[in-house]
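Note to self: keep these together.
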Amino acid sequence: MEIRPTTDKDLDVFVDTLHAAFGQFPETPAEGGGGLWWSALEMDRNLLAMTADGRPVGTAGAYSFELTLPGEILVPAPGVSFVGVLPSHRRRGVLRAMMRHQLAELRARGEFLSVLLASEAPIYGRFGYGPATYAQRLTVPRHQAAFALPRARGTAGAAATESDTGSVELLRRAECDGILEEVYDRYRRTQPGALSRPHRWWALGAGRPPVSPAPRYVAVHRDADGVPDGYAGYSVESGTLTVDEIITTDDSVFTALARFVLGHDLVTQVVFKNLPPEHPLRWQLADFRAGRVSDDDWLWVRLLDVPRALTARGWFADGQLVLDVDDPFLGEHGRYLLTVRGGKAECVPTDREPDLSLDVSDLGAVYLGGTTPSTLVRAGHIRAHRPGAAALADALFRAERPPHCLHWF
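Structure:
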């Protein structure tokens, strides 16, 4: 078997092979390729697995994104996608070979981490990925959507409830391309765990709504000067209003947009598909039990260069930890002294006794602050070698707020 990079000439073969791996058929391309989830493919980042007689049996690819780390630090982050193996060639090591080849290629490009959305959780942990951000789905019956009066004066929630000086304008998706792109880009630069949405994605309509041109209504919030500072994209079907996403950097604007969709007439329930963990919206309802919550993982992180990754992000506590990191998929092992002072970190090899022993997938899970090291200690995944090590790791690895990713790829 051969694993080889693709070129533009391989587009049809790559797409056909991927669809066959999942038992699907390619969509009919719209004019210019717009609106198809695969229209933003980067063919110089994709791989084909070929049999000895030249037949394609597997695919793997990546997008070029920026990831926002704790401390509002932007770093390159390849987004792994299009991973599939034909049913006729599963359980033959094709996937492992492609994943190993891809990780080597990412390192050769100088990238120190990669990310993905896991179609099946057991698969990608084997290759060193750990779940690093989480999404909350909130369903609110329309008749229980009343907001409580804020008890604390001067808060963001109170401002939105009592004296929001902005306005909400209702537009169709086709009327607000530039607004969505601009507002999202401001948001993703400040939100830990967020990924960029390159301009070509918006231009091609690649991905899911509201990036795609699928019919949607968009509630655009404008500040007192008329500048767009938030939006909520939604659809209504069979009495359910589904909010694809609410994007803003301002809690009061989020509240105003949430009130707008929750006040929609002739719907029986409102579904918020992807809220950040610990979001206050449920607490803002007069009936706390009105909101039904379900949680899921979203972005998975894989570290390719531990010292570079740990020194790249921002930190919000001082301290020292010795991390003993095992990477069984790549057959690597390292022990590192992590020293954090004044928001910056140094990470160097050491032979000191470890404070924590962990798998590289566990380090990926805690890297953005969305999973606490002590949780993984209690789960039996991370070993703490001394009292207090897990608590110190919790303090060190926390982010300024819970990491959250909305982008689908």
